[in-house]
Design a protein that fits this description.
The protein is mainly β. The chain has one domain: Sandwich (Hypothetical Protein Aq_1857, Chain: A). The protein contains 1 helix and 9 strands, in the order E-H-E-E-E-E-E-E-E-E. The strands form 2 sheets. It has a 6-stranded mixed β-sheet with strand order 4-5-2-3-9-8, covered by helices on one side. Strand 4 and strand 5 form a beta hairpin. It comes from Jannaschia seohaensis.
Length: 109
């Protein structure tokens, strides 16, 4: 699938994947969009093996994968890793989201 602007991954997110040894385990960070959550759609973020048909984004020896169904929802999104006083997590800055919930896990289009 050709997207005008595929999602991109920040160096900080790739660095965090390297710190947790994702590639050493044969895993990638999988970003998916599913129906549900308090705003209509929600992000699912897991460590998983890449599958056929996935978009694979690579950097620093690490991989982030997005399945074909989720790609249109993540066009031009930025996948990052943040550390705050309340904890650390992978985040998605999605310009396609019309609104999102306070936790940043669910959104509407």
């Amino acid at each position: 699938m050709d997207l005008a602007l595929p999602p991109r991954v920040t160096p900080r997110a790739f660095e965090r994947l390297a710190e947790i040894g994702a590639a050493d385990q044969g895993k990638a960070l999988r970003i998916a969009v599913e129906g549900g959550g308090c705003s209509g759609f929600q992000y699912q973020i897991d460590l998983d093996a890449p599958a056929e048909g996935d978009l694979i984004l690579e950097g620093e020896g690490q991989k982030v994968v997005v399945d074909e169904v989720s790609l249109p929802f993540l066009e031009n999104a930025v996948i990052d890793f943040t550390e705050e006083l309340v904890g650390s997590r992978f985040t998605i800055e999605n310009p396609n989201a019309a609104s999102s919930c306070g936790c940043g896990v669910s959104f509407s289009m």
